[in-house]
Every structure is written in C-alpha cells, then in structure tokens.
Amino acid sequence: MDTQSQVLDRLRSAFHSGLTLPEDFRQTQLTKLTAMIKENEELILSALHKDLAKPKFEAVLSEIDIVTNELHYAITNLSAWMKPEYVSKTLATKVDDCFIRREPLGVVLIIGTWNYPLQLLILPLVGAIAAGNCVVIKPSEISAATESLIAELIPKYLSQDCYAVVRGGAEETKALLQNRFDHIFYTGSQTVARCILQAASVHLTPVTLELGGKCPCIIFGRLVMTAAARRLVWAKFFNAGQSCVAPDYVLCSPATRDALLPALRQALDDFYTKEPQSCPDFSRIVSPRHWTRLMELLKKSRGKIVVGGEGNQEDKYIAPTVVVDVTEDDALMQEEIFGPILPIITVDSLEKSIEFVNRREKPLALYVFSDESSVVHKVLEKTTSGGFCSNDGIVHMTLPSLPFGGVGASGWGSYHGRWGFETFSHRRACMLRGWALERLNCLRYPPYGNDKLSW
Ligand code: NAD
C-alpha cells in the first residue's frame, strides 16, 4: 500500500500534467462516479444499514438520490460553468479582453463525517472533480462499513492518478494534514474544525468548514398542529436526529406547546408506532460512545421528559424523546444534541424567541413555523443563519441551486450545485491586452509634471 506521501506525489504530478483540465476528462469522471453509485446501490444501502440502521427509504432519499441528482446537475451544467465570464469594462480597458477564468485549485482534501457518510463525501467530490482538481478523500472511520466500501469502490471507478481514498481516524488525519494541500474541505464538529484550522495555517491553506450547532425551530401563530407536528417530527427524527440541519430545539409560547404536544405524540405513533425500537423506519445511534453522550445529556437535563426517554445501549437505541420545561441553562441547551431528543423551550413572545436565537452562535439552519407570513418575514429579517426554511425542516438543502453552508461558528463557505464548483475553483482575474493605443499610455508615463492630474 502506498504511503500518504506517495499518494500525494502521484496526485500532484497528475495535476501538474494537466490531465484534469479538459472538460471531457471531468465529464468522464463524473459519469463513472454516477455508475459507481448506480451499480453498487445495494452494497451502499447495506453498508449504511450496518453503520446506522438507516431505513432504505431514508438512505435512498438522503444519500443515493441527492448524490445522483448532484451528479446529473453538474454533468448538465459543467460546460456553462467552465466558460470564461466576461465582465464590464471602463473606457481605459474598452479594447481589452476582460474576464474571469475558473481554474482548479490543485490537490484538495475532503474530510467527511459519519452521519451521511456517502453524501458528505461525494457531494463535495462532485464539485472538486467538476472544477478540475485532484482529490484526497478521507471518510469517517466511525461509519466503518461505508468507509471501507468507499475505499474499495473509488479506485475501481475513478482515475487512480487523480483521486485517492485515505483511511483512518484522528491520528491518520493529523498526519495527512501535515502535507500541503491547495484546499481543505472539512465536514464535522467545531472542536475538530479548530485542529483543521491550526494545521491549515502552517501552509496558509484555504479551508471550507461545514459545521453544526443548534438549529432552532420557532413556532408561532395559530397553526394546523397536525401538519406542523408531522413536519417537525420528520425533520427531527430522520436518521434518529443525527442531521446537522435537524431542528435542535423548539421555541414557542406555553399555549402553542400545549397544543403541539398531543400532535407530536400522534405523529410519533403514526410514524414509528408505539414501539419505535421494533420499527424498521427508525435509525440507531452511530456508536456506543455517541449513545452514552446522549443518555448522559438526558440524565443531566432538569427538563421533564414527556415522550420517550428510554435507551438500550446494546442496540444503540434511543427512543424519540420530547422534553419540556427546558431552560436556557439546561444541559440540553449547552451543545448540539445530534440525536433523537427534542427540547421545547417556552417564551412569552415572538420577539423573545428572536432575542433567544440572537444571543447564541449563528445556526446552520433556522426554521419558523407559522400561518402568518408576517411572522415568517419578521424572523427572516431579524436573525441570520446558514439556511432558512419556513414551515418545514431539512428540505431547503435538497435544492442544488441554493448554496449549502453555515455562517460564523456553523461554517465557512458553501457547496451544492454551482456553489461546489465555485468553492473548488480559483476565480482568476484576466485582462488580455494587445499593443494598440500605445499613444494613449503617454498619459500615465512619467514625467508626470504638474498638470497630468488636472485632466
Ligand atoms: P468529527 O469532527 O469528530 O469527525 C469528522 C472527521 O474528522 C472524521 O473524518 C474524523 O476522522 C476526523 N477527525 C476526528 N478527530 C480529528 C482530529 N483531532 N484531527 C483531525 N481530524 C479528525 O465528527 P463529529 O463531531 O462526529 O460530527 C458531527 C458534527 O458534524 C456535528 O456538529 C454536525 O452538526 C456536523 N455536521 C455538519 C454537516 C454540515 O454539512 N454542515 C454535516 C454533517 C455533520
């Protein structure tokens, strides 16, 4: 097996040879990647089931379909994205050719995480290939079955000169990060993001960070609670709450909470039955360590569990759980939950909920549920977040025409669709000037004298 530095040398010399520059080469690799997903769908689904007990429907929707749609979108639009972008000119540059040229960055590193272990590697990879880079892919060791499948499949389908998978955990990733990359694209926790930034600073490598945080869901107004509860439960408990854009907590008035609770119970029963542990449509927590963290959080919380609360360590199962009477200083509000526990916090007014959100780090996604568009617009105007969606959760990230990413502590930069291509491209400012109009240049050459500025 090649060492990390042999892998990097191979990729760097392929990049310098210009192999990845032609559109044809990029299109071929994207087409092969599509074939990789299509021809191995069953193997992928079974690896995802091994790692997280992902229900087939959720795995198809959030891993297979989102990736194949992204590939199709890139294959269809690549030619247009690669074209030079001509810009407006001044009088002095009227006869020049002035344009922005998208160039690949070089050899880039993509570090993925375990909750959507296929999607979170392949979506950035699509952008990186489309932009003409060579890529080192580092899957998460925690979703071990998917990690090993990706390591087996990528070299079978993609050019081994240009793309490589490096496996391992924190130690191997730290060693990898000592190398010089032209860009690092990291998805994961804020804690590890700090290590990535430190390593990147040594080589002044630009970094995209796709992080998390606590995504609020503000519920205000006289809603149809059945629909609100169903949408909220779906977005929260999809993948057992292990989604970076899952609603982390609900903010609402005491009256809304009282109306919402029976609707939440009903939606949970309808979706996952009264015995969710036996329901094939409910995922498991990824590892015993993550299971323990969540159960500890629940134990430390001073809130009142009104739904669920049970867990089974051996099965890595935690019941869909709803907790009320949660205060701002509660254990559940000190870190991103990233599991099937939904705290509900009551506030007196919409303004108070906006203040609550604005006191905290900028979230990756912010949701508002209301029957009044003035409420939706007020929240939109008075807050900020990576993404925003009214009256639903998660779905805004399925559109390749919208940039996906955080702001501030929830992430730097964005991807999906054209945004991924842009993230992995350098926008080179080009002016192609000929030899005409040299007589005009005497205006800018010395001797300047005293009267040139008065023109
Ligand atoms: P993590 O940060 O622990 O691990 C992610 C990757 O970093 C893995 O490949 C791992 O091998 C590597 N890694 C771990 N420790 C390292 C170290 N010390 N140095 C270098 N590399 C190291 O992942 P996690 O905390 O389990 O991920 C969950 C977080 O990711 C949540 O906060 C979630 O919101 C966030 N997330 C964000 C997105 C997004 O798109 N914005 C998507 C999914 C998850």
Summarize the structure.
The chain is of the alpha/beta class and about 450 residues long. About 40% of the residues lie in helices and about 20% in strands.
Structure overview:
Helix 2 (23-39) packs antiparallel against helix 4, helix 3 runs antiparallel to helix 6 and helix 4 packs parallel to helix 5. The protein has two domains: 4-212 and 413-426, Aldehyde Dehydrogenase, Chain A, domain 1 (3-Layer(aba) Sandwich), CATH 3.40.605; 216-405, Aldehyde Dehydrogenase, Chain A, domain 2. It has 455 residues and is of the alpha/beta class. Helices cover 42% and strands 18% of the residues. The site of nicotinamide-adenine-dinucleotide (NAD) has 26 residues, from helix 7 and helix 8. Pfam families: Aldedh. Keywords: NAD, Oxidoreductase.
Question: Which helices and strands occur, and which strands form pairs?
Answer:
Layout: H1 4-17, H2 23-39, H3 41-52, H4 56-82, E1 85-86, E2 97-104, E3 107-111, H5 119-130, E4 134-138, H6 144-157, E5 163-165, H7 170-177, E6 183-187, H8 190-203, E7 207-210, E8 215-219, H9 225-237, E9 247-252, H10 254-272, H11 288-300, E10 304-307, E11 311-312, E12 317-318, E13 321-324, E14 341-346, H12 350-358, E15 365-369, H13 373-382, E16 387-390, E17 411-412, H14 418-423, E18 425-432, H15 438-441
Parallel strand pairs: 3-4, 3-6, 4-5, 6-7, 8-9, 8-15, 9-14, 13-14, 15-16
Antiparallel strand pairs: 1-2, 2-18, 7-17, 10-13, 11-12
Helix pairs in contact: 2-4, 3-4, 3-6, 4-5, 9-10
